[in-house]
Design goal:
The chain is an alpha+beta fold. The chain folds into two domains: about 1-180, no CATH class; about 180-265, no CATH class. Helix content is about 15%, strand content about 40%. The protein has four helices and 14 strands. A five-stranded antiparallel sheet has the order 1-4-5-6-7. A four-stranded antiparallel sheet has the order 8-9-10-11. The longest helix has 15 residues, at about 190-205. It is flat, with a radius of gyration of 19 Å.
Length: about 270
């Protein structure tokens, strides 16, 4: 595969293996001026760390700002994905964003698929900004291609609470239609039994006791959720296989009984 990164100037504007959380309480009386900046964008990391407390704030919004784009050539298709920033909230050097992918396959924009993804992300991860605060879910995107599968990996984090989540969306490159997880598993060369066995090992690892001698996740409850409604295989940007799993918080935590999505190499 050949991957190149194309960076363009972005109009200032406003996506979590483990993930991150944003926990920011912010106040301001006058928003900073909108600026134009050029930044070298590298592949987003698997984890995003918590943001420090910031005092200087800037809010920007634009519908067509392109944060980055990259292109991959496969045996059958040339795929380009641009990360479009719809909104952003900038606190000093740190910026929370609401992004969507814009996909081009073999030189032609995948209009129907792009609309599907944009509608899904705006509905599932709303992000609101005004002169005084930000509210909702900030998002970042990664993507991978292999076995004629395009995977869009979403990292989302709350802008006001200690909460983050993950999601993987898979599409067939010939039809540009969604792929169900069973079909993805088959293309990865695994049976359902082999795939779920690997997922169970990952769940066990997440549910190990920590240094305080308790687990943040309940193994029995989490293992009961190993099915295609709660588990999604996908392709990482480097072409390796990954999985989004569902875990249930243990009774030792403040989130007891709640489900959360986590991400891992497969």
């Amino acid at each position: 595969m050949k991957r190149t990164a194309i960076i363009s100037s972005a109009l200032c504007l406003a996506l979590m293996a483990s993930g991150c959380s944003y926990n920011q309480g912010t106040t301001t009386s006058t928003p900073a001026e909108t600026t134009t900046e050029e930044t070298v964008v590298t592949e987003p990391s698997e984890e995003v760390t918590s943001e420090p407390e910031i005092t200087e704030e800037e809010i920007t919004e634009a519908e067509t700002s392109i944060e980055s784009s990259s292109e991959v050539s496969t045996a059958s298709h040339v795929v380009k994905v641009e990360v479009i920033t719809l909104k952003s909230y900038k606190n000093g050097p740190n910026k929370l964003t609401s992004v969507v992918p814009r996909i081009t396959v073999d030189g032609k924009e995948a209009t129907e698929l792009n609309k599907l993804l944009r509608d899904h992300m705006q509905e599932k991860y709303p992000f609101n900004v005004d002169d005084n605060h930000n509210d909702g879910m900030a998002t970042e995107i990664e993507w991978g291609v292999k076995d004629n599968i395009l995977s869009i990996i979403v990292h989302a984090s709350s802008t006001s609470e200690d909460y983050f989540t993950k999601e993987a969306l898979n599409f067939d490159l010939d039809t540009l239609k969604p792929l169900n997880s069973g079909e993805v598993t088959k293309r990865l060369g695994m049976t359902d039994e082999e795939f779920f066995g690997k997922v169970e090992d990952i769940v066990k690892e997440y549910c190990k006791l920590n240094e305080k001698s308790y687990s943040a996740y309940d193994y029995e409850e989490s293992a009961a959720l190993i099915n295609y409604d709660k588990v999604t295989p996908f392709i990482w940007p480097d072409g390796s296989y990954g999985v989004v799993i569902t875990l249930v918080y243990s009774e030792q935590t403040q989130f007891y009984g709640l489900e959360c999505m986590r991400i891992s190499k497969l």
